[in-house]
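User: Show me a protein chain along with its predicted structure.
Assistant: Here is one chain, sequence first, then structure tokens.
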Amino acid sequence: MPAYLLIEACVGDRQRSDAYLAMVEQAIGRYDGRILTTGGEIEVLEGSWSAPEQLLIVAFDSAAQAKTFYNSPEYGTARAVREDAAIMNTLVVDGLPL
């Protein structure tokens, strides 16, 4: 069953965040993930959501695969580069069978 990482980002240091994103894109590909969106305009249509500065959605074939990526050495290195450059909130959610 597919799964998605939902990542809310608040960027403080754009240069370091861009370096992080370049590393993350490579790691996501290594773990067969697919970036579905890296942001764009976000509009709250209903409820009390607070629109994040940036929202990333990454698809994986399963939650286990998403967690393998998240706990990988490659992503750990990228997180170290990002430290103090951006605040991230990350969720993994199961999708529906395709």
